[in-house]
From TrEMBL:
Species for this entry: Streptomyces erythrochromogenes
SUPFAM superfamilies: DNA-glycosylase
Protein name: DNA-3-methyladenine glycosylase
Lineage: Bacteria, Bacillati, Actinomycetota, Actinomycetes, Kitasatosporales
Positions with biased composition (Low complexity): 23-32
PANTHER family attached to this UniProt entry: DNA GLYCOSYLASE, DNA-3-METHYLADENINE GLYCOSYLASE
Claim: DNA damage is one of the keywords in the record: yes
Keywords: DNA damage, DNA repair
Family annotation (InterPro entries): Alkylbase_DNA_Glycosylase/TA, DNA_glycosylase
Amino acid sequence: MAGRFDPLNRTAVRGGRTDVPPGRAGTAGAGAVERRWTPDGPVDLGLTLGPLRRGPADPTFRTTPDGSVWRATRTPDGPATLRVSRTGTGTEIDAEAWGAGAAWLLDQLPALLGAGDDPAVFVPRHRLVHASHRRRPGLRLTRTGLVLESLIPTVLEQKVTADEAYRAWRRLVRQYGEPAPGPHGLSLHVMPDPRTWAMIPSWDWHRAGVDAKRSDTIVRAVRVANRLEEAAAMDLPEAVRRLEAVPGIGPWTSAETLQRSNGHPDAVTTGDLHLPGIIGYALAGDRDADDAAMLELLAPYAGQRHRAARLVLLAGRTPPRRTPRMYRSDIGRL
């Protein structure tokens, strides 16, 4: 579709979206580039980008009191920092980026904010899901186009508590990553590159609380980093096969990764300790549901099962706790 040129703001208007050219010089800081994008519908920045955050002190992710979301990442073009915020009207999204990968990040901005996601095709089949869906019209499924940045912290989360995994991620990124480009007040860091991950000595994995099984999986993954990154452009079944060809990556890890890198609405998580019970309790009053029962309950949402599961989780209807919390190990203290 041909664009319509607006002589007042010197932007190209295409298909209902207004884009400031990604290469235009920014005004927020030295070396920044900017883009303004108008989505076709509501976008809640917190709900959409929240799954990329690994704990409240994630060194690669920050939210600030003005509602901005900051993200430091390693793109195919190099490290970059992205700031995303709403304009004064609230209908447009402003983005600023710094670093070698700034242009790449701004080019990917619509996908990151769910432009490829079509929530209109979702049809709620349960009262709770319908209510949760209606209360969150701005929920979009993010698509980063980056596999390793989601895969590595997901592997760290295998079979441990969230706190343990977040602690390991913080320690390793700060120790082996690099300061993010751009403004330094938030102390953001970019995660290590594949070669650096592969060179981390066993004692530093241990100090971070990461056992040999998880560290070995990460090392195997980064050694085929380019092959894994190709999965970001694949259909879900092919992408799953590509990731699970690496020993140590199973259905739980591949689903949690592809939900973020590919933004696939049907990448439902199986093998989780808590999710089947939450879904079963919320939709059928069955707190003892297993994966098979969960998938049966989600069957009416085929093609959209991940979105349905997220809406159930956001509804907050969880079964009362009746067992002790998962034991927290700390191999870094052994």
